[in-house]
Amino acid sequence: MIKAVYGDYQPLAAPEAIIQGPNYRFTILTSRLIRAEYSSTGTFYDGQTQTVLNRDFPVSHYEIREREDLLEIITDHVLIQYDKQAFSREGLVFKLRGYFSIYHSDWHYGDPIQDLGGTAQTLDHANGAVPLERGLMSRFGFSVLDDSQSLQLTQDGWYQVKQGDSLDFYYFGYGHDYRACLADFYRLTGPQPLLPKYALGNWWSRFYRYSEATYRQLIERFEAEGLPFTVAVIDMDWHVVSVPPQYGSGWTGYTWNEELFPDPAGFMAWLHQHGLRITLNVHPADGVRPFESMYQQMAQELGLDWEGGEYVVFDPTSPRFLEAYFKHLHHPKEEQGVDFWWIDWQQGQTVKGVDPLWVLNHYHYHDIQARGPQGITFSRYAGPGSHRYPVGFSGDSHMTWESLDFQPYFTATASNIGYGWWSHDIGGHIFGYRDNELALRWYQLGVFSPIMRLHSSSSEFLGKEPWRYPEPYASSMKDYLRLRHRLLPYLYTMNYRAAYQAQPLIEPLYYQHPEEEAAYEVANQYYFGSQIMVMPLTQPRHKGSLCSRFDGWLPEGTWYDIQTGLRYSGGRRLSIYRPLERMGLFAKAGAILPLSGDDGTDNSLANPSVLAIKVFTGADGHFDLVEEAETATDTWAGTAFLTTGLTFVDGKVFKLEPQGTGLRTYELTFVGACLTDLELTGQGRLVDVSHNDQGDSLVRLEADGPASLSFKQAPRDSHQVRLEVIFSYIEQAQMENQAKDQIWALVKKDMPLAYKMLELQGLGLEPELVAPVIELLVTEP
């Protein structure tokens, strides 16, 4: 029998945490997380559900006050008042202790919840925004997760539909401690799994009738262009789609199209030799029909009349069907070379009252993991708990600015329900229009998304290959693909942090700044890991300035534009303006950003022999780089990771503390500073010291163990850098030449900044033409 067992989790709560009456039960999981149940029969469920796996939390302190018609439960954070009757608005209230709202911190059972949103199952058919399902975070300090209708997981690895009408929900009263809320949600439901490194690189995906020959030509062209891809997605045309009309459509299929792919195993072996992992698209809804090559074996195993052509109906409620489904339809192709599956076309359907999407996600993930720890699933969101089955496919994006503009907010807000690994159709899939600028901006967003998967439909005019775009778009697209690959050391560390430290790669600003109003109002701005803040450009550029604008907010402190090195003072709202090749990428003083020192033209997944580290000066900083030990076979066991500690004490020392990485070259860029009197001690050798065009110090050293670089530090004079950036903007702007001369003269004029800004604004030009110059003039703290 097929099995999917979460044996590492304990669904039974400690007896001391339970307060129970004839028809009710409260479980104090933490002082802020409480399970509440009501059953008219007095029967309660103690097993795992499709959402909840673990209730074994340390027992928290609480007090009980009770009389015949009232039960009060008091924790350090919540007061519960209950009349011991069937749950009702009048009889059950949760009162959050602490000041979060004058009127809205009490929740009466059944009242609507005002939270900050979660995610949605799909972006199919959406040109722009879609309604979001519930999340766990709320400015009012609490939210509720209803588990009353969840499927129940049985100890033999199967599931059952819940019987009866009992109520079962979880109250989260975490105030504005959003990270603690998410951490306990993961403890309750299971963490996000660690992704294999290949999933963090660039994916090539297209709904297109490729053949083995044309797909090879594509990969060879990518290699010739120096464009690194680590995942090859083969959409549904890998299988036979032109089926006899009596069988309906060809969306569901499992038989290789031998006209296009005469040697599937050889083809996939070739892809593996070229450094790519492979996923095939499947649409399981129509089951297995008599034209399929494996139909007879499947039908015989299920006791069906194969000679009479009896259909093998897709039945996610049958263990026998699912066992045969994997045995005959999937395992043979995995043995041929398939690394994981793209599960498609199941959303919004039910089979015998069961959501087949969740069943497929659950069993596909367990099945592929049982066959090797480097497997993942690729499917749509199927409700809370779906973060255990990464990666998510968000659906068929419309190729419009409206769709691009919604994706940053949609992706960041998904963290509010723990869903951290969305994969979007980068560049758009269908409809919309051709817009070169839109395509480039989507590329840029994709690099700073959880998964970078380019995608498009079968139209001959919609391919996302960079060479199909004119300059300067094509070159910039190539640069961003290479940047994504160079980011793998950083991304893998964030992947580790998501799996083991309960912090998703992408976080809304309010996770770190919960009491700042601006953190809730700048919807599209987000943190990309611990060291990068992103302001994505999702609106067309101004026709005169040739810059795109983003109205954002910088928290307190000193911030650097990662791409220019210019410093910005924080604690303020601001509008940034960026030309085509740049976007809004910021690092706070003290940030340490590790990248591969290679040029990003090779799709190798090996740990880089040269590590390029950007150190943003002006404050102390620390970063623990985590890499997988490449000689190990089981990086999921928690013992096969290599850690390199990187510590910066501003103006004094930079420390390297590698553990087991061997001899490695480190290229350090100290952004914003000029270093003198350098001395390296420990197990290292100073190779070279130089400066870049911005005046930042570049230090190249080798080390095979702990090493410490001491120095003196002087702030870099960024005046010339700022002038160069301003000049490049004025030069490319589409405005009158006389106006350019006037602006440039004012920029260079020796006068107070306030007067200079007033004169710029008084030139009588369109505000959007002078705004980029003003932004750059006021960058320095």
Notable features of this structure?
globular; about 775 residues; alpha+beta
Structure description:
Helix 12 runs antiparallel to helix 13, helix 12 runs antiparallel to helix 15 and helix 14 packs antiparallel against helix 15. The chain has 15 helices and 36 strands. Strands 29, 30, 31, 32, 33, 34, 35 and 36 form an eight-stranded mixed β-sheet that branches. Strands 17-16-15-14-13-20 form a six-stranded parallel β-sheet. The radius of gyration is 28 Å and the shape is globular. A hairpin with a 3-residue loop joins strand 1 and strand 2. The chain has 781 residues and is an alpha+beta fold. Helix content is 23%, strand content 25%.
Radius of gyration: 28 Å
Strand content: 25-35%
Task: Report the count of strand segments.
Answer: 36
Mean pLDDT: 95
Report how far apart the termini are.
Answer: 65 Å
Overall 3D geometry?
globular
Portion of residues within helices:
10-25%
Low-confidence stretches: 633-638
Main sheet characteristics: 8 strands, mixed
Structural class designation? alpha+beta
How many DSSP helices? 15
